Amino acid sequence: MDYFIIFITTAAGLYFHWWLYVRIKRWMDRDLALSLAGGDKAKQAFMLEQLALAREAGVKRRQLPDWLRQASDGYRAQD
User: Fold this and answer.
1) Residue 33: what are its φ and ψ, rounded to 5°?
2) Contact 75, 46 (CB under 8 A)
3) How many CB atoms lie within 10 A of CB 18?
4) Cα–Cα distance, 30 to 25 (Å, whole number)
5) Largest CA distance in the chain
6) CB neighbours (10 Å) of residue 65?
7) Residues 24 and 46: beta-carbon distance below 8 Å
8) Rounded CA gap, 45 and 38, in Å?
């Protein structure tokens, strides 16, 4: 019974750490997109859409900052 308790506790702890790691990565990506938008509400919405498109397209995390910067530059060209 002791091993079962240890196993369950360890599994729950590992799952919690994984979940927290994923949430922090998502928050960082969202903050990056919003920081590139500045204070413009329309651009913030646009950048969040671009972040969603990047996730759907499978853009790697290392490429994400450059991808979002290009999207941000493309928005400026539309003004």
Assistant:
1) -60, -45
2) yes
3) 10
4) 9
5) 66
6) 13
7) no
8) 11
- Angle in degrees, 0-180, between the axes of helices 2-37 and 64-78, rounded to the nearest 10: 30
pLDDT in tens, 19-49: 999 999 999 999 999 999 988 899 999 999 9
Tokens linked to 40: 């413009």
Reported as type and span, the H/E element at residue 37 is helix 2-37
The overall pTM is greater than 0.70: yes
Nearest alpha-carbon partner for 69 in 54, 56, 58: 54
Q: Which residues contact residue 60 at a Cβ distance below 8 angstroms, ignoring those fewer than 6 apart?
A: none
Per-position DSSP letters for 10-21, written without gaps between them: HHHHHHHHHHHH
